[in-house]
Amino acid sequence: MPVMHNAERYNCRVYCLNQRILFIRPKLFLADDGNYREKRWFTTWKPNGKSRGLDKFVLPASLQKLTGAVHVPFGHGAVSTLDTSPHINLCLAGVEIIGNGSGSHHQLRKLDQRMDLIRGATTKSGGVYLYANQQGCDGGRLYFDGCAVIVVNGQVVAQGSQFSVKDVEVVTATVDLEDVRWAYRGSVSSRSEQTSSLDTVIPKIDINFNLCHDDTSIAQPTAPIDVHYHVPEEEIALGPACWVWDYLRRSGVAVSSCPSLVVLIRRLWPPSLASCATLLSMLPTRATRR
Question: Three-state secondary structure along 143-179?
Fold first, then answer.
């Protein structure tokens, strides 16, 4: 979400809980290669020294009335719940749950690389990794292929669809944070040495909320699953089809104007893919949906 703070525009994630805004977290590193030009629109959040701390962000009047808060923390920090260990400070610093709100576009076999990076990160240091990705098109030539996943200590416990025409897809799992804190991280003695010498300070946002249940009979941890990968032929078939459908849905194109869209697609896509425009004929009754 774009947020203006101190006359600068930042690309941010907004953390909410029970109709409250916990804090706003701007991006520390912007993508400026390949198909991305974030630096054209946004400013990088640059901490001063070891820790810049947290600034106060004044909420708009409408949000002040809705949430009852005037200021919220803005910057680089970690959310600390009532059941977060108080003596630990991101991975070595003690953060058990890491969230990644990504905007990764589809390329053939890119999901393999994506999963290797996510699983590798939690295999080395332990933790729960929540990966979310956009799904659909934004009016351009790129298709964002979703596939949200939840990974615990290097094992995938939940996976969303890679190609879908749904508006929203939610992926959930039940995890045991004790498996992260003691069973996984606590079993590596060298981690204690590294943690004791850690001098990085991460500001915390304390909230009056328990993330865990003491009664283990309520729910059991979700069992690991095998990652589902599409073969290249399926990716080639599903990716362009979902892009076309999402383009039609977002633009509100009626059936009568579909031929003009076919011309547009033929200009955007290479000749080898232009035949995919014939997929429009499969959606005559749903193309009028707005």
Answer: CEECCCEEEECCEEEEECCCCCCCCCCCCCCCCCHHH
